[in-house]
């Protein structure tokens, strides 16, 4: 089990100001469990501990570059994912979009380094750039 009380999920899209969701003080994520944090307009149902609706935030934001960071109660970065989406012309198709991450990311749940695009370990993520 992992106590996530007062931990934050911080999201920054491009150069916009970051937004941060703060877990309730007594929130604990049980081993093997997942939690989804829904923005208020995303259609999620508040059903802790598996689903939490962030009532004061209408969107997590979208864009060509974004970074999501998990920060513990002491302000330490525990996990991070940075995504850059690139669109380019392709001879066979009109437009193609590809998402990549600059570096491997630390996956808190499995405690392994994985690629932010494909979720594979670095030695298996041959299709990513």
Describe the structure.
There is one protein chain. The chain is mostly beta strands and 129 residues long. Helices cover 0% and strands 42% of the residues. The protein has strands at 2-3, 8-13, 19-22, 28-29, 36-39, 51-54, 65-71, 77-88, 96-100, 104-107, 112-115. β2 (8-13) and β3 (19-22) form a beta hairpin. Mean pLDDT is 78; it is low at 102-114 and 121-125.
Précis, in short:
By secondary structure, this protein is mainly β.
Features:
129 residues; mainly beta; 5-stranded antiparallel β-sheet; two-stranded antiparallel sheet; 11 strands
**Gap between N and C termini, in Å?**
34 Å
Share in helix: under 10%
Please summarize the sheet with the most strands: 5 strands, antiparallel
Structural class: mainly beta
Radius of gyration: 16 Å
Strand proportion, as a percent range, falls in: 35-45%
Shape: globular
Mean pLDDT: 78
Low-confidence stretches: 102-114, 121-125
Number of strands: 11
- Listing every helix as H and every strand as E from the N terminus to the C terminus, the arrangement reads EEEEEEEEEEE
């Amino acid at each position: 089990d992992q106590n996530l009380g007062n931990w934050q999920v911080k999201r920054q899209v491009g150069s916009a100001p970051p937004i941060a969701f703060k877990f309730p003080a007594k929130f604990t994520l049980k081993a093997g469990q997942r939690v989804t944090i829904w923005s208020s307009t995303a259609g999620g149902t508040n059903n802790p501990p598996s689903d939490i609706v962030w009532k004061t935030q209408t969107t997590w934001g979208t864009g060509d570059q974004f970074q999501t960071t998990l920060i513990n109660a002491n302000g330490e970065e525990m996990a991070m994912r940075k995504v850059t989406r690139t669109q380019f012309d392709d001879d066979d198709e009109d437009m193609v979009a590809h998402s990549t991450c600059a570096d491997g990311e630390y996956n808190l749940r499995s405690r392994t380094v994985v690629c932010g695009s494909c979720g594979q370990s670095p030695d298996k993520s041959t299709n990513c750039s």
